[in-house]
Design brief:
The protein is an all-beta fold and 159 residues long. It is built from no helices and twelve strands. Helices cover 0% and strands 40% of the residues. Strands 1, 2, 5, 6, 7, 8, 9 and 12 form an eight-stranded antiparallel β-sheet that branches. Strands 3-11 form a two-stranded antiparallel ribbon.
């Protein structure tokens, strides 16, 4: 049984600040239109072969990051996961939020994406309920896994 958390009391009017912002990832899948910017292009198509998703090579602990341009109070990160195949590739994903360009120096946001969470679409990761996390940079990294990291859209929700 998956433990449940009490509902968050988010302020009204949360909106996404990641769309169109500069991104980077550890690698690009060869022969695929799969650059890091695909995860913030506003296209929620969940078929990775349509060219609407970011996609790394199969590697140890692949990562993706977005620069929001300024520091925000971040309440939640919402990831639209691949649905045409392989949603398990998001398993063991850790999200970090902070002001360091080196994402490994930023603190984790919420819980690691585990188990059945990968089948939820979209996947919601709370960075804070009443007390949000502050940061300019948001990253997603697979922890202790050799796998491809594929995400079709990443939304960073602020008040």
């Amino acid at each position: 049984m998956i433990p449940t958390l009490p509902p968050c009391e988010f302020p009204p009017g949360l909106h996404n600040v990641a769309q169109g912002r500069p991104t980077a990832q550890s690698s690009d899948k060869p022969k695929k239109d799969s650059g890091s910017e695909k995860a913030v292009d506003g296209d929620f198509n969940t078929d990775a072969n349509s060219g609407s998703c970011s996609w790394t090579n199969k590697e140890y602990q692949p990562w993706w990051t977005v620069d929001l341009g300024e520091t925000y109070d971040i309440y939640e990160v919402v990831i639209t996961n691949r649905q045409d195949c392989c949603p398990f590739r998001l398993k063991n994903a850790e999200i970090r939020v902070g002001n360091s360009q080196n994402f490994e120096e930023n603190p984790p946001c919420g819980m690691m994406i585990l188990g059945r969470m990968v089948k939820e679409n979209p996947v919601h990761v709370r960075c804070g309920c009443e007390t949000p996390m502050q940061g300019r940079y948001v990253s997603v990294q697979l922890i202790d896994r050799t796998q491809m990291l594929t995400m079709c859209e990443v939304e960073v929700m602020v008040a």
